[in-house]
Design brief:
19 helices; globular; alpha+beta; 4-stranded mixed beta sheet
C-alpha cells in the first residue's frame, strides 16, 4: 500500500537549504503546503552583490538568442521565489528581458528562409500566409497559413543564422558557467550540458517533424489528447509545417474555472509523465507555450524538438524506485540505486538520506491523498533537489545520475511546475498507480484513456508496459 500523509517530507520543516519549513493543514482531509524558501537562501539573495551578479547574468544571456530564451522558459515554468520582496520587482524586470530574448526579425528575412529551403516562391507553396507571427519558439517563430488544397497550417520557421548563433552561445556558456551558477545555482553543469545537447537537436526541424508524426499517430483517436499532424513533404531543416489547431493558450487556460484546471492538469500529467511509463517515451520539454485547449475540449501538445525514448529497463528502474519510495522501503531504494550506478559511493549514503532525497522531489505523486499543487510546492521541490547550497542532501548531489534519468527527471519537474501554475488538484498517486502498479484507473479521464488504449491494442493492452514485476 502507498504511504499515508501524516509525516510528509514536503510538509515537514527542514533544517536548511533551498526549501523552508512547511506546514500540514489538517482538516477532515489532510492537505499540504509550503511557505516559500528558507531564510538562508533569502538572506543569500538579499545581498546586493548577489542581485548585481544576477543582473549581470541576465544581461549576458540577453545577447544569447535561442539559449537565453530556453533558460528563460525553464525559469518561467517554476516560481523561483528566491529573491526577497524588496528586490523582486527589479529582478522580474531583468528576467522579463531574458524571457523575451527572441530576436526581432523582419518578415522578409523569415520569408527568405522559407523560400531558400523550399527552393521556390512562398506563393507556390501557400495559398495564404499571414505575415504576423502567432507565436515565438526559442529559435524561431510560428506563422499561420493555408495550403492550396485548403488545409490550414502552422508554419514554424527558424530565425536566419540562429544555428550559428546558438552554437556560438553554447561555447560561451562554458565560459560563463561560474557566473551563471553564482546567481542561479540550479543551472548546474549537468543542466548546461543537457541544454547544449537539446539545442543542437532542436536545430533540425525535419527530424522534429518526423518525431511529431510518430507521436501524432501514437495518439490518433485519443479522447482528450491531440498532437497535430505535420506535413512532412513541406518540412525542412529550418521550416516545419503542421496541421493548425484552433484553441486557447496557457494564459487563457489559467483564467478558466478551477474544475477546468484540475481536468487539464491531469491530462498534462498523463501526457508528460504517464507516457514515459506506458510507452517508454516522453516529451522532454514541458512548457506552457507547448500546451493549448482546443475548441473541442481536447488538450493539444506542440513542439517535439526534444523527445526521448528510453530503454524499457531504465523505465522499470524508475518505476521500481518510485514504488520503493512510496512504500518507505529505504534500503531497497538504496540498493536499487547502487546496482544502477546512481550511487557510486555507498559508504557515504545511508538509506534515510536516499529515501528523503527521492521523496523531496517526488512525494507529491507518492502520497495517497488529494493534493493541490502550488507554485511554491513545485519550485520548492525543484530547488531542494538541485540547489548545491542545500546541504541536507550533499551526499546524494555528489552521486552520478545517468543522463537518461536526468532527462526524465527534468520533464517530471517541469510538469510539476506547470501543474503549480494551474494550482491543479488531484490524488496524483492514485493516477500514477495505473503505471506504477498496473491498477485500474479511478478517474473518469483514466477510464477513457484505458478504453482508448484497449481499442488501440486490440483489447489485450499489449502496448502498455508492465512494471510491477521489476
Amino acid at each position: 500500500m502507498a504511504k499515508q500523509v501524516p509525516t510528509s517530507r514536503l510538509a515537514r520543516g527542514t533544517k536548511l537549504g533551498a526549501v523552508a519549513a512547511g506546514s500540514m493543514l489538517r482538516t477532515q482531509r489532510a492537505r499540504m503546503s509550503m511557505r516559500g524558501r528558507s531564510e538562508a537562501v533569502r538572506a543569500k539573495m538579499a545581498e546586493e552583490s548577489m542581485i548585481r551578479t544576477t543582473e549581470q547574468v541576465v544581461m549576458v544571456l540577453g545577447t544569447m538568442k535561442g539559449v537565453a530564451m530556453k533558460l528563460g522558459q525553464m525559469m518561467s515554468v517554476l516560481d523561483m521565489d528566491l529573491v526577497p520582496p524588496e528586490h523582486r520587482e527589479r529582478f522580474q524586470k531583468r528576467l522579463a528581458v531574458l524571457r523575451n530574448a527572441a530576436p526581432t526579425v523582419s518578415f522578409e528575412a523569415m520569408r527568405a528562409v522559407i523560400e531558400e529551403d523550399f527552393g521556390r516562391p512562398l506563393e507556390d507553396v501557400f495559398a495564404e500566409f499571414e505575415s504576423e507571427p502567432v507565436a515565438a519558439a526559442s529559435i524561431g517563430q510560428v506563422y499561420r497559413g493555408r495550403l492550396h488544397d485548403g488545409r490550414r497550417v502552422a508554419v514554424k520557421v527558424q530565425y536566419p543564422g540562429i544555428d550559428i548563433a546558438v552554437r556560438a552561445d553554447l561555447k560561451n556558456l562554458a565560459m560563463f558557467r561560474r557566473v551563471l551558477q553564482s546567481a542561479m545555482p540550479w543551472v548546474t553543469p549537468a543542466v548546461l550540458d543537457e541544454l547544449r545537447l537539446n539545442m543542437e537537436a532542436e536545430l533540425d526541424y525535419h527530424a522534429e517533424a518526423e518525431t511529431q508524426r510518430q507521436i501524432s499517430e501514437l495518439y490518433a483517436g485519443h479522447p482528450f489528447i491531440v498532437v497535430p499532424q505535420p506535413v512532412l513533404e513541406l518540412s525542412t531543416r529550418r521550416v516545419l509545417v503542421s496541421e493548425y489547431l484552433d484553441g486557447s493558450g496557457f494564459e487563457e487556460i489559467k483564467e478558466l474555472p478551477q474544475a477546468d484546471h484540475d481536468r487539464i492538469g491531469e491530462i498534462i500529467y498523463r501526457f508528460y509523465v504517464g507516457s514515459l511509463f506506458v510507452f517508454n517515451e516522453f516529451c522532454g520539454d514541458p512548457h506552457p507555450g507547448n500546451v493549448m485547449l482546443t475548441t473541442d475540449g481536447r488538450v493539444g501538445f506542440l513542439d517535439f524538438g526534444l523527445f526521448n525514448r528510453m530503454d524499457p529497463d531504465h523505465v522499470r528502474f524508475e518505476a521500481a524506485c518510485l514504488r520503493a519510495a512510496a512504500e518507505d522501503r529505504a534500503e531497497d531504494l538504496r540498493q536499487l540505486m547502487i546496482q544502477r550506478g546512481v550511487i557510486d559511493s555507498p559508504d557515504e549514503i545511508g538509506p534515510d538520506e536516499c529515501l528523503e532525497y527521492v521523496l523531496a522531489a517526488s512525494e507529491w505523486c507518492l502520497i495517497d491523498e488529494e493534493l493541490t499543487i502550488t507554485p511554491e510546492l513545485a519550485s520548492g521541490a525543484f530547488l531542494l533537489a538541485v540547489d548545491p547550497r542545500a546541504s541536507e542532501f550533499t551526499g546524494m548531489k555528489q552521486q552520478n545520475l545517468p543522463p537518461e534519468h536526468l532527462f526524465s527527471r527534468r520533464a517530471d519537474f517541469l510538469t510539476f511546475g506547470m501543474l503549480g501554475q494551474l494550482e491543479a488538484t488531484a490524488n496524483w498517486h492514485r493516477i500514477s498507480r495505473e503505471w506504477l502498479y498496473d491498477e485500474p484507473p479511478v478517474t473518469e479521464l483514466g477510464k477513457e484513456h484505458q478504453r482508448w488504449l484497449a481499442e488501440r491494442t486490440g483489447g489485450d493492452q499489449s502496448g502498455k508496459t508492465r512494471h510491477n514485476k521489476a
